């Protein structure tokens, strides 16, 4: 159906009344990533796509956006067979994609970012005034309020996401794919995004909403498709879905989504920060006079939008970043700027944010990574010189069994494991030392819902054993589910602290943006 025959969207572009993917197959060496998957999106609906890591979501959407090409199957737009060869081809067919990590140039303005890669209406001369005017028109239509003349670096995260949506609409997207669109947003920004998505759907756009947050899927979508192991499990109306039902469809078994925590049995202070300051990687203020106390037997959650000092906080405590002012004490001993080895020796363990950079050596085996920090311990060596490989393998096998790590053997290279199993290995190693203080930074980022459930249970068990746990996470659901207290960071400072007892999500959201 031609654009002149088809109904137009408010943006003046042709509507995609229906898009259907039938029998889609995609093979990679040794892997069947998509196994005869059927998926469709209709005009005016928000269709959620759920599944664990490796379930096939990204592969399916990359084929729809022209990044991959299906080995078998068919894509039809408005009942017409369509071959999508590249992202440019996808855009020409009215398909846009909003990536989880924004594809924007920070030093350029909003208008310049939107104009990138597009032909000017004036030949070799820039037409940024035309682009800016069109951006303002789209902003008014969809309530995407952004100043086209501002550079990207001056915009908040939620505003940058609006720029991505505006860019897709400017290029004529009738169908939008949104990959984890709420991952870095505050609750208020999520509410604003959902209003925009509902308006887009009401105006005739089709939307694919990829998320791991089940409550958001239930709130925003009309239908839900669940993938598992490269196959479609089912597609159901959202009105017939519940969180437990969706989780079971994703994993193939019942999943515990809410935890009954034992009453808090807090002990003495184990970790204390007093007016700690530090520089960021850019040489600017990373931490600004942060004070915090953490007692044994409690979990303190650190909430905040990414980039507000959380990484610097974890690194200052664990000896990986210089403290420029203030002090850090563990069990009453001043450990300010102590090396990591000294901190390990006094019972501090660390689950790092970047597991593949700071947590493991991917070219090493599972067993070698398990004893990475303790390989010189007397239980693994003779006279601290000769390594006892049999004892190392035995200890690693016990950890594999206890922490349900899926690996062919202790000699398997870590790079061959899934993200969830690598995270379990890091957790097993850090807990094997029976720590008094545990710093857990983004412990379930990029991890399947089944592995997330397991890691959460382990953290709660450590809490009950008396371990003092600092949980740093950008996932408010995780923070609220596990924490006894919640501190909020903004621009390198702790701007508020609340007891996690029927905590007000709106209050947390305001604190995360520097409000009161």
Tell me the helix content.
Answer: 25-40%
Number of domains: 3
Query: Runs with pLDDT <50, length 5+?
Result: 1-5
> Can you identify the CATH superfamily of the largest domain?
P-loop containing nucleotide triphosphate hydrolases
Number of helices: 17
Side by side, the strands of the main sheet go 6-7-8-3-9-10
What coarse outline follows from CA principal-axis ratios?
globular
Tell me, rounded to a whole number, the average pLDDT: 88
Number of strand segments: 22
Strand content: 25-35%
What is the radius of gyration computed over CA atoms, rounded to a whole number of angstroms? 25 Å
Task: Characterise the protein shown here.
There is one protein chain. The chain is an alpha/beta fold. The chain folds into three domains: 3-102 and 173-251, P-loop containing nucleotide triphosphate hydrolases (Rossmann fold, 3-Layer(aba) Sandwich), CATH 3.40.50.300; 265-347 and 435-516, Rossmann fold, CATH 3.40.50; 362-433, no CATH class. It is built from 17 helices and 22 strands. It has a six-stranded mixed beta sheet, with helices on both faces. It has a six-stranded mixed beta sheet with strand order 16-19-20-13-21-22, sandwiched between helices. Strands 2-1-4-5 form a four-stranded antiparallel beta sheet, with helices on one face. A hairpin with a 3-residue loop joins strand 17 and strand 18 (386-387). Helix 4 (128-142) packs across helix 5 (157-170) and helix 14 runs parallel beside helix 15 (449-465).
């Amino acid at each position: 159906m031609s654009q002149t025959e088809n109904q137009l969207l408010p943006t003046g572009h042709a509507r995609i009344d229906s898009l259907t993917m039938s029998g889609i197959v995609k093979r990679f060496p040794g892997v069947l990533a998509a196994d005869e998957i059927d998926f469709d999106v209709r005009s005016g609906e928000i269709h959620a796509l759920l599944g664990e890591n490796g379930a096939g979501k990204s592969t399916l959407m990359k084929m729809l956006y022209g990044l991959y090409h299906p080995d078998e199957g068919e894509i039809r737009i408005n009942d017409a067979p369509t071959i999508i060869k590249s992202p440019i081809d996808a855009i020409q067919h009215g398909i846009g994609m909003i990536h989880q990590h924004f594809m924007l140039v920070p030093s350029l303005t909003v208008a310049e970012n939107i104009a990138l890669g597009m032909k000017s209406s004036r030949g070799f001369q820039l037409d940024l005034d035309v682009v800016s005017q069109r951006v303002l028109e789209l902003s008014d239509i969809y309530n995407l309020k952004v100043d086209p003349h501002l550079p990207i670096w001056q915009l908040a995260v939620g505003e940058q996401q609006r720029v991505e949506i505006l860019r897709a609409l400017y290029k004529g997207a009738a169908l939008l794919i949104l990959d984890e669109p709420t991952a870095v947003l505050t609750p208020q920004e999520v509410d604003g995004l959902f209003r925009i998505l509902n308006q887009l759907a009401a105006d005739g756009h089709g939307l694919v909403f990829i998320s791991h947050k089940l409550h958001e899927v239930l709130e925003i979508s009309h239908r839900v498709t669940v993938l598992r192991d490269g196959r479609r499990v089912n597609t159901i109306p959202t009105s017939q879905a519940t969180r437990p039902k969706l989780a079971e469809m994703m994993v193939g078994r019942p999943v515990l989504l809410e935890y009954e925590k034992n009453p808090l049995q807090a002990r003495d202070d184990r970790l204390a920060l007093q007016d700690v300051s530090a520089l960021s990687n850019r040489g600017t203020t990373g931490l600004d006079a942060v004070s915090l106390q953490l007692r044994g037997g409690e979990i303190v959650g650190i909430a905040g939008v990414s980039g507000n000092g959380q990484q610097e906080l974890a690194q200052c405590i664990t000896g990986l970043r210089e403290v420029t002012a203030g002090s850090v004490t563990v069990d009453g001993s001043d450990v300010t700027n102590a090396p990591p080895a000294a901190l390990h020796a006094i019972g501090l363990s660390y689950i790092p944010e970047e597991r593949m950079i700071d947590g493991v050596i991917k070219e090493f085996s599972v067993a070698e990574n398990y004893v990475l920090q303790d390989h010189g311990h007397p239980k693994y060596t003779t006279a601290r010189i000769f390594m006892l490989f049999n004892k190392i393998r035995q200890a690693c096998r016990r950890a594999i069994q206890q922490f349900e790590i899926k690996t062919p053997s202790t000699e398997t290279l870590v790079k061959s494991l899934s993200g969830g199993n690598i995270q379990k290995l890091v957790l097993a190693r850090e807990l094997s030392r029976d720590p008094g203080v545990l710093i857990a930074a983004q412990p379930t980022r990029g991890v399947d819902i089944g592995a997330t459930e397991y890691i959460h249970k382990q953290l709660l068990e450590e809490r009950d054993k008396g371990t003092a746990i600092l949980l740093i996470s950008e996932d408010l659901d995780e923070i609220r589910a596990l924490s006894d207290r919640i501190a909020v960071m903004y621009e390198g400072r702790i701007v508020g602290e609340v007891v996690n007892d029927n905590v007000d999500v709106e209050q947390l959201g305001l604190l995360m943006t520097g409000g009161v």
